[in-house]
Amino acid sequence: MIETMEELKKTCKECKKCRLCETRTNVVFGTGNENAEVLFIGEGPGENEDLQGEPFVGRGGKLLDKMLNAVDLDRKKNIYIANMVKCRPPKNRDPLPDEQEACIGYLRNQVKIIKPKIIVCLGRVSAIRIIKKDMKITKEHGIFFERNGVIMMATLHPAALLRDPRKKPEAFEDFQKLRDKIKEICTSTY
Ligand code: URA
């Protein structure tokens, strides 16, 4: 385990563990408060993220920020946002199992440094990998699970909400449940 986020970021930026290093512009390591009690985990960078080196900066990111702000969360202040894979899969395909495997250690190390009380998975791919293999995101989003003392929940991916805006109210409900849970178990987020 690498002890500091700075050092971990440096290692990650030089990573050549899988083929995604060949096509990336930037490694998208993650952003936010290293002492956050709430960690959001997406799938992997898209085109805008690859170009800017920041997670969730495209249209989906704008929507995510709106939902976060609605429950008094702010990527620059009281949460951390990371992805399961740190480099963009070509044409935004799902990250392949061997790419996930190569990258997951960095996320585990981030979790060890941040020590979040709550993890929110954004979308199916991270929910399956992080919460449970047979996660059914359409049915089980907004439900809290416990893994090794950490509370976990999945919500719909912002990109899925852009594709089908009728699902937005369901996602907003998840964020309201999240706010209630934060108020129940967190001490420094609000
Ligand atoms: N989708 C993700 O899952 N992560 C990002 O950073 C951007 C889009």
Structure description:
This protein is of the alpha/beta class and 190 residues long. The protein has eight helices and six strands; from the N terminus they run H-E-E-H-H-E-H-E-H-H-E-E-H-H. It has a single domain (5-181), classed as Uracil-DNA glycosylase-like domain (Uracil-DNA Glycosylase, subunit E). Helices cover 42% and strands 13% of the residues. A hairpin with a 2-residue loop joins strand 5 and strand 6 (150-155). The two termini are 30 Å apart. Bound molecules: uracil. Uracil binds at residues 28, 42-46, 49, 55-56, 60, 83, 122.
Layout of secondary structure:
Blueprint lengths: L4 H9 L17 E2 L5 E5 L4 H6 L6 H12 L9 E4 L13 H18 L3 E5 L1 H7 L6 H4 L4 E3 L2 E6 L2 H6 L4 H18 L5
Parallel strand pairs: 2-3, 2-4, 4-6
Antiparallel strand pairs: 1-3, 5-6
Bound molecules: uracil.
The site of uracil (URA) has 12 residues, from loops.
A few lines on this structure:
The protein has 190 residues and is an alpha/beta fold. The chain has helices spanning 5-13, 47-52, 59-70, 97-114, 124-130, 137-140, 158-163, 168-185; strands at residues 31-32, 38-42, 80-83, 118-122, 145-147, 150-155.
Main attributes?
alpha/beta; 8 helices; Uracil-DNA Glycosylase, subunit E; 190 residues
Instruction: Please tell me the CATH architecture by its name.
Output: 3-Layer(aba) Sandwich
Derived from helix and strand composition plus strand pairing, the structural class reads alpha/beta
Mean pLDDT: 98
Q: State the low-pLDDT regions, or none.
A: none
How many domains, in number, for the residues? 1
> What is the first-to-last residue Cα distance?
30 Å
Question: What is the total tally of β strands?
Answer: 6
Helix content: 40-55%
The top level CATH class name:
Alpha Beta
Q: CATH homologous superfamily, by name?
A: Uracil-DNA glycosylase-like domain
SSE succession = HEEHHEHEHHEEHH
**Are any ligands bound, and if so which?**
uracil
Number of helices: 8
Oligomer: single chain
CATH topology: Uracil-DNA Glycosylase, subunit E
- Beta-strand share of residues: 5-15%
Q: Largest sheet at a glance?
A: 6 strands, mixed
